[in-house]
Write a structure and sequence with these properties.
disordered C terminus; globular; 24% strand; eight-stranded mixed beta sheet; five-stranded antiparallel beta sheet
């Protein structure tokens, strides 16, 4: 007798309620067909057999053993979860009322802090995606003090104080700020270029430099729809050489139901956190002994990475790309030519002296691909030329900004470059869009947000080529049938670009794919081709990435599937559960027999 159970988690975690797919809200799971949607050339199996004793008894629980009370609790929890799942959360863009509430909450919180801690100095307090924050120069706070601050905020809101806008001269604003001894506000005032200066008062008790907008009275805020979430350290102006401030984060909504839906979403996001699941599922780690932001792929994580890489390579070869492998370091002169040392030095590591020559760890792959292009002369008949590489790069990040797989110091980009003629731009961009959709769909991502970013104020390249390139990107998007938004002036200085964000199971959007036309590097490296008139011309260069980086994309995959990967992507696809010890051989033999019959499964791991 044989039981095959599809597994994405280790056998030691079968009893963990956080990882059983049956405990997931149904809308967080992809359809069952995803388990077999991608054929695999290898079937990964593991026998659940320890110390000579079969573990089948561990999963032999029948429904009759589950208590009625437990069923009722589960049903009640499911009803509550289903109700919260149906709540549509507004955004700052969709609801001006919500934006005003959040902005006012930041002011109310700053007022409360200064009432409780008179020596605290205020800095800035904006609204953000899910709420607000305010930075203070003060002694470190504790979670206990957050409760005191929230209580004082409730009291201020309950007083229904008016928010009054006032315009004053720059001199008057400076006089008032100096009287309060608020040095950070003086610095902010110096950065405000417009006159007059606007101030918002809460009643007659507290005021702040502010352009608005706000609610009319503090009583317009629902006290039960606000929660102070956390405390973090933040350098003033983001500069590590400046004072460390205390940042208080809060969330605010229009009503209590929205707050509860947000907290439910937040809890689900916490449950899916790739940093936690990466350890629980033994997929990867970041070792302090080696240094922050450097990823160690464990055997199971490496299996998933190998599957991703194999699919990526196969798809690119089928679409006419040549695969490359290039060095991780190069002479510093190369990065001087590319412009990275002039414009990107703060993100690069220190140079190394090798036999009296300076070498540099690469922050990008582009110059290497250009050097391969330059190794010989090219004719217009050679185009398009498509090259791709899974190239590891190294970028300096402050330790405080590192975040699991999402923000690291060494990562592998799915990088590719296309060298083409001007009249080939549209077709090449369309080809990249098709390839992008093909790959992302295989990983379960079908919802995208697409932005077309146009020429910024400072740029290189002639007007004519900018117009042609931008039109080609637009035409390719329209030909593809994708809706998109225009980010006017948001392009890189060297060319227009398309950015694509994928939407995960929780509705979060992740920057993933990018396509950029480049007029800069071809000029810097003086790359050319010979046209039909035997004249030298400069080709167009297109940068593109589909997954972004393998590390970040893997983190997104973990959170999207909550560790419960599709069968074809799972590091352990099945567990062999023999009913008795004598049936181990029979069970494995059966599994081999079944899979040998399938042309898509050629071997068994473990």
């Amino acid at each position: 007798m044989l039981i095959l159970q599809r597994m994405a988690i280790s056998s030691s975690l079968l009893s963990s309620p956080l990882l059983k797919t049956s405990s997931f809200p149904t809308h967080f799971l992809s359809p069952l067909k995803r388990c077999v949607s991608q054929p695999t050339t290898e079937f990964r199996a593991l026998a659940l057999y320890r110390n000579g004793v079969s573990t089948s008894a561990a999963v032999a629980t029948t429904e009759s053993q589950v208590s009625t009370q437990h069923d009722k609790l589960k049903e009640a929890q499911k009803e509550k979860t289903d109700k919260l799942d149906k709540v549509v959360l507004p955004s700052n863009e969709s609801s001006e009322k919500l934006l005003r509430i959040r902005h006012t909450c930041a002011h109310v919180m700053a007022m409360a802090v200064q009432k409780l801690f008179p020596d605290a100095k205020v800095t800035i307090g904006p609204w953000i995606e899910n709420g607000f924050y305010y930075d203070f120069d003060m002694e470190p706070l504790t979670d206990k003090e957050l409760k005191r601050i929230k209580k004082e905020m409730d009291r201020i809101i309950g007083r229904n104080l008016p928010l009054v806008r006032e315009e004053v001269s720059r001199e008057e604003a400076q006089r008032r700020i100096s009287a309060l001894n608020e040095p950070y506000k003086l610095e902010i005032l110096d950065g405000i270029k417009e006159d007059p200066i606007t101030i918002y008062h809460i009643g007659n008790e507290w005021w702040d430099l502010c352009a608005g907008p706000h609610v009319e009275y503090t009583g317009k805020i629902n006290r039960k729809a606000i929660e102070l979430e956390s405390i973090a350290g933040a350098y003033w102006r983001g500069d590590e050489k400046k004072p460390m401030l205390q940042r208080i984060y809060g969330t605010a909504w229009e009503n209590e139901e929205q707050l509860q839906a947000y907290l439910h979403f937040k809890e689900e996001a916490k449950r899916r956190d790739h940093r936690r699941l990466g350890q629980v599922l033994d997929l990867f780690s970041i070792q302090n002994d080696a240094g922050g932001g450097l990823v160690f792929w464990h055997p199971k994580g490496a299996i998933v990475r190998n599957v991703i890489e194999d699919l990526w390579k196969k798809t690119h070869i089928e679409r006419g790309y040549d695969l490359l492998y290039t060095p991780h370091v190069a002479k510093a002169d190369l990065w001087q030519i590319s412009g990275h040392l002039d414009y990107y030095r703060e993100n690069m590591y220190n140079q190394m002296d090798v036999e009296d020559e300076l070498y540099q760890l690469r922050p990008m792959n582009c110059p290497y691909h250009i050097l391969i292009y330059k190794r010989r002369r090219h004719s217009y008949n050679d185009f398009p030329i498509r090259v791709a590489e899974l190239g590891t790069v190294y970028r300096y990040e402050l330790s405080g900004s590192l975040h699991g797989l999402f923000r690291v110091r060494g990562f592998t980009q799915d990088d590719a470059h296309i060298f083409c003629l001007e009249d080939q731009i549209k077709d090449e961009i369309r080809g990249v869009l098709d390839l992008t959709e093909e790959l992302l769909l295989k990983f379960g991502f079908s919802k995208y947000e697409v932005n077309l970013s146009t020429r910024p104020e400072k740029s290189v390249g002639d007007d004519d080529i900018w117009v042609k390139a931008t039109s080609a990107l637009r035409d390719a998007l329209e030909d593809k049938g994708w809706s998109y938004q225009i980010d006017d002036g948001g392009g890189a200085f060297y060319g227009p670009k398309i950015d694509l964000k994928i939407e995960d199971a929780l509705g979060r959007k992740w920057q993933c794919s990018t396509i950029q036309v480049d007029f800069n590097l071809p000029q810097r490296f003086d790359i050319t081709y010979v046209d039909s008139n035997s004249e030298k011309k400069r080709p167009i260069m297109i940068h593109r990435a589909v997954l972004g980086s393998l590390e970040r994309f893997f983190g997104v995959l973990i959170e999207h599937y909550a560790g419960d990967f599709p069968l074809w992507l799972s590091p352990v696809q099945a567990h062999v559960l023999p009913v008795t010890d004598t049936q181990v051989f029979k069970a494995v033999s059966y599994l081999i027999f079944k899979n040998v019959k399938r042309p898509s499964t050629q071997s068994i791991r473990n």
